[in-house]
Amino acid sequence: MNTSPLLGTIVFLPLFGALAALLYWHNERTCRLLALTVMLADLVLVLFLFTLTPHFREPAGGNWLRVEDFSWMDALGIRFTLALDGISLMLILLTTVIGALTVLISWNEIKEHVAAFHFFLLAMMTGVLGVFLAMDVFLFYLFWELQSIPMFFLIGIWGHERRIYAAVKFALFTISGSLVMFLALLGLHLLHARQSGETTFALHQLIQTSFNLPLELTFFAAFALAFAIKIPMFPLHTWLPDAHTEAPTAGSVILAGLLLKTGVYALLRFAFPLFPHAAQLFTPLLLILGLTGIFYAGWIALAQTDLKRLVAYSSISHMGLIIVGIAVWNLTTLSGSLLQMINHGITTSALFILIGMLDERLHTRRLSDLGGLWKTLPVWSGFFLFFSLASIGLPGLNNFVGEMLILIGTFTRQPWAAAAGFIGLLLTVVYVMRMLRESIWGEARISPGIADLTGRELTILIPLTVGALWLGLHPGPALELFGTALTVPDLVKGLPILTP
Amino acid sequence: MTIPFTHMLFLAILLFVMGAACAMTRKNLFLILIGVEVMLNAAGIAFVAAAMRWLDMNGQIMVLFVMTAAAAEIAVALALIICFQRQSGSTNADRLSLLKG
Amino acid sequence: MKPVLFLLLSFPLLGALLVSLIGRHLSRRAVETIACTAVAASFILALTAFLLSGQKAYSLTLARWFAAGSFQVGLDLYYDPLAAVMALMVTFVSSLVHLYSVGYMRYDNGYIRYFCFLNLFVFAMLVIVTAGNLVFLYLGWETVGLCSYALIGFWYEKPEAANAGAKAFVVTRLGDVAFGIAIAICWVTLGHLSVSGIHDSAAGIDASRAGIIGCFLFLAAIGKSAQLPLSVWLPDAMAGPTPVSALIHAATMVTAGVYLLMRFFPVIQASMPLMAVIACVGILTICFGALGALIQKDIKRILAYSTISQVGYMFLALGAGDVAGSLFHLIAHAFFKSLLFLGAGCIIQALHEEQDIFRMGGGLRQKMPQLFWLFLAGTAALGAFPLTAGFFSKDRILLAVFLQPQAGYKLLWVIASMAAMITPLYAFRLFIIVFFGKSQSPSGPAKASPTSVPDVMTRVLWPLAFFSVFLGFLNLPLNWAGKEWLAQYLAAVPGSAMELHASSKMESAMQLGSALLTIIMVIVACIYYGTRVESVETGTETLLSKMQALFRNGFYLDRLYQTRITAPYRAAAGLLWQKVDAGWLDAGLNQSARSFLTLAETLRLWTTGRVSRYVSMMVAGFALILCSLTLAWWYLLI
Predict the structure, then answer these.
(1) How far apart are CA A480 and CA A482, in angstroms?
(2) For position A494, what pLDDT does the model report?
(3) Could you tell me if A421 and A324 are in contact, meaning their C-beta atoms sit under 8 angstroms apart?
(4) Distances from the Cα of A498 to the Cα of A267, A334, C192, angstroms
């Protein structure tokens, strides 16, 4: 079982890179190259995992593709346990790809404190990767905090005008959520220790804890609160538009592409399996909040004047559908939600990247200043149209498959919720149409002579385009990875709905 | 002739309260310091009395510790007061309100 | 069969990809050649498939698409006589429109975008036609919507074009919500999504369930086919280039809704109430479109309203259970309406983008004689002039409605027949005003003499005109010693085996009657519109002018949606954001965070910075601790 610490390397390579980047504080270019190299190396390692996948199925014992378990703080029962299954594999692939892209995105945008920027960026990557791989709940909590803190600095130092407000808001929301979760986590640990006599934070052991219902409900609520803030779920979403609007492009991309996903992932990996009965009782609430989020954010998005804010609200709306998929909890919706996490990571990141590129050229993101961009920036507009269409779920592009799976799966159990979800997709069309109408179509208001996308920018966008098409036309392999992971007993204990 | 334990305890309490009252009400830093010293010595008397009462030398040893600590403390405190007096030309404790929230 | 169908689909897609990816590095001629060749090759393959298929139905899978749990979707194809006829029509008309576009777009710099989306459209339309399951069909369905959006808004710098594109996309997408729900219901109740599977299980399901599925499919069809109440997008869609209007908004895409219902007709058929609803929506739309077309001034808007009306006939036919009749009219309409649109495109370009029929100055008959005859063929077919394609197809629909046993259908028949009298009226109104109109039009002086248009633009109209006139012989009625070839060919398609049991005497009587009525109406149109100039609205509010305004504005349906739905929705979005999200939710959460700050402000008053205060506090604290300890001790002892 304890083979080479491959997963550990993947997780900590960015952190080492982060420290190394600090050493080159005097040479910006070296810093950037170093960060890029580190992320690319990490990506190569993750791809290497893909090639090894069949071999590791056997020795890891069926459920997991790979498990790495080291003793760490034995007295407290904390172990350094990383494990990989299909879900984690796809998510760390997304993480490393987006990580590499964010370095490229920031190439020209970030001009001050370059070393510190890359330090925080890479440190956050370690946090995110850790969240997706940790199977020791305490370790998970550490990574969970590690991913939030650098984001605070990224927004607060390199953000736009109201950056301090946004950064503090982000920090207050996330930290207050995760502190509550930490309390519940300790309570769970102590309860388990009292029941079994073992001090442990291992997920697969904590799952066996038995509760009385009020306690289980409390614990689930505490966990779900932390994750709901991160997702963000409907009434707790107000930090997101501010954070997105004020963050530098790389920050927005990581926020939309990765941090929001950690919330859903944690809900799926920790909150539901640990507290299955409570989760089932909470299902109607989650369903309603998810649906409300779709409509509420989709509606508000129509009124936005700032492109980034518009996409931020669209992001909340999309996450609402993913929550619906998780709440319904059957194989079809879960596969759909997981796929939709990847899809949303690609599509929304791409939109934020494109808006960032526009901002670099025009120094405005206000819709009223734009118009007729197709004339001046045809290539940019082509990409913008493409990803906007992906975002409204055009069949053949990535989001469609996820949405379809979620809604079809939901329909088998909650027809009205699914019907509402279909109508919710219409709201997406309305605001995306308005966004396109006022940005790329219409009379050209931008003076010509602005250069279209450069080679570096195309390098950023083409992988995302390929990803969108690939997941739209051939999502089979990804769904297969999810499918096998979702039938793992650990994940679904106490939730008898799932049948292979 | 032995003084009753309670009498000694009363003396200690009396001294302690007087010291505390001095430390609380005075504004001159020196007088506050004197009050603190009186309180420390009141505690010392209580220790000695307890040592006599239970015939345990630990109490007397403790007094030695307290006296040492008090000497060290008074040295540092006097140094600080002199420093403060040089800066502000006063030994009024109320002017020393940098920690005000 | 598989390679043929695969290539049939992949040529236009490949064309679109090539044009979009490397079009910038190619010459204009090369781009045009690629686009046209791709579609022409597709036509040849459609013909090959048609000849090879021999009335059989083929179900095949090109590739797997996605699967989760038991839910599986592949890129499946289903090719049967219905698909064969549609594929032939689509590729044929598309090829001609592509060729026409080479001429029409000769000065436009956006030709790469144009041909890319036009090719992509052909691909998507063929996907709709040949898709073997609902989800794959949905792919085509949405992609034609995208192409329609992009091509309506092709001249994006004109605000009305950009708005019309977005409007068309959103309104048709409203129908697609129903499509999505239909897919879900099919999956949950029938357990599969394949066309053949749905055909098979249609026989076994009860009427109510079939009605629900059919109802959602019908709603989807309403959106795409611009039927009431979702018809508002089609007149605006005329902001796009004219060839696009001809191909997408007349010949093919708007009939996709009809095709969808034909494709799943066994399900529709199982529910009589649904059939009645379809027929009623059809008849309402026929009247709506016909009255709208009667009064418009813009040549393209006349044709657009006419399209709405003609598609209504197809729905009426389906409501009467006559798939073959519906398809017959669909094909005939595709030819004569694309002919009319393309002809209108020639006129518009020749007259320097003039679209108002009253400002065309008349006299085009001498200046464009070739076009005169072509347009006459189209007008005659549209007006159902005896012996043209439109005559036979419309008659078959009326007969099918008449033969339905229920009493309500007789009423529908009466209304449909009356509406059929309006058709020649507006068709010949258009024709006469454009080609014979008085040049002393009050709206302004006539334009300068028309310029010539490229030969290719008129040449491609000949085949269309030929079919508009002679396509009727494809499905000659039985009393004409015809064989009803089309109906026979479709006989094997599930749901379409409908025989019209009419005595040949009655059939002849009806044909004679409608022929007479049509000729009368044509004469009326010639006299009425040939002699008088359209009255210009004055300030007076007569009943007639009110009616005219009502028809011209499409019964104010558009305005109704604007004021009752769109505007409130937009306003509510702003309110929701400013008042609820920012003003209430966000402010509330911020306030709760700020309450900690207030608490801290209060607490810091304790910190006076005075040593004596600190000492007092400390002493008080100690005293408190001591007291409580004593109390506790005392309490424990007692």
Answers:
(1) 5
(2) 39
(3) yes
(4) 17, 10, 20
Query: Using 50, 70 and 90 to split pLDDT, how confident is the model at A498?
Result: very low
Report yes or no on chains B and A touching (3+ CB pairs under 8 A). Answer: no
Integer Cα distance of C605 and C9 in angstroms: 79
Residues of C contacting chain B (CB within 8 angstroms): 603-612, 615-616, 619
Closest to C306 (Cα-Cα) out of C429, C214, C400: C429
Q: Which amino acid is at C456?
A: V
Looking at the complex, report in whole angstroms how far the Cα of residue B83 sits from the nearest Cα belonging to chain C. Answer: 17
Tens of pLDDT along A324-357? Answer: 999 988 888 889 999 999 999 999 999 999 999 9
Residue C59 three-state SS? strand
d(CA C638, CA C635): 5
In terms of C-beta density within 10 A (0-12 exposed, 13-18 middle, 19 or more buried), how is residue C24 classed? exposed
Q: Note the ipTM here.
A: 0.90
Of the partner residues C146, C573, C589, the one whose CB lies closest to the CB of residue A303: C573
Cross-chain residue pair C610–B32, CB shorter than 8 Å: no
Give the bridge partners for A70, in sequence order.
A80
Check whether the bond before C229 is cis (ω within 30° of 0).
yes
Q: Which of C67, C71, C177 sits opposite A422 (nearest CB)?
A: C177
Residue C153 contacts A where some CB pair is shorter than 8 Å: yes
- DSSP codes of every residue in A147-202: HHHHHHHHHHHH--TTHHHHHHHHHHHHHHHHHHHHHHHHHHHHHHHHHHS----B
Q: Is the dihedral of CA C308, C310, C313, C314 positive or negative?
A: negative
Q: d(Cα B77, Cα C377) in Å, to the nearest integer?
A: 114
**pLDDT of A411 higher than 80:** yes
DSSP type of residue C20? H
Cα C228 to Cα C211: distance, rounded to the nearest angstrom: 19
Among B20, B93, B98, beta carbon nearest to C619: B20
Q: Which residues contact C596 (CB under 8 A, 6 or more apart)?
A: none
Q: Shortest Cα distance from C27 to chain A (angstroms)?
A: 18
Q: Residue C371 is encoded by which pair of tokens?
A: 């076009």
Q: What are phi and psi of C497, to 5 degrees?
A: -80, 85
- Sequence-separated contacts (24+) of C479-486 with Cβ below 8 Å: C479/C504, C479/C507, C479/C508, C479/C511, C484/C324, C486/C85, C486/C324, C486/C327, C486/C328, C486/C331
Using CA atoms, how far apart are residues C242 and C251, in angstroms rounded to an integer? Answer: 12
By the 8 A CB rule, do B40 and B77 touch? no
**Could you tell me which chain B residue has the CA closest to the CA of C615?**
B24
Q: What is the pLDDT of residue A234?
A: 85
Which member of A389, A404, A423 has the closest CB to residue C135? A404
At C497 the pLDDT is: 66
Give the length of chain C. Answer: 638
Q: Hey, which residues 250-309 in chain C have their CB within 8 Å of chain A?
A: none
d(CA C45, CA C37): 12
Q: Tell me which amino acid residue C467 is.
A: F
Q: Under a CB-based contact definition with an 8 Å cutoff, are residues C58 and A395 in contact?
A: no
Please state the φ and ψ torsions of residue C67, each to the nearest 5 degrees: -150, 140
Mean pLDDT, chain A, integer: 88
Average pLDDT per consecutive 10 residues, chain C (638 residues; last block may be shorter): 88 92 88 92 92 85 85 89 91 93 88 92 93 92 92 89 91 91 90 87 84 92 90 89 89 91 90 90 92 87 92 92 89 92 89 79 75 89 87 88 85 89 88 74 52 82 89 76 76 73 78 86 83 58 77 81 87 88 87 89 80 82 92 86
B100: which chain C residues are within 8 Å (Cβ-Cβ)?
607-609
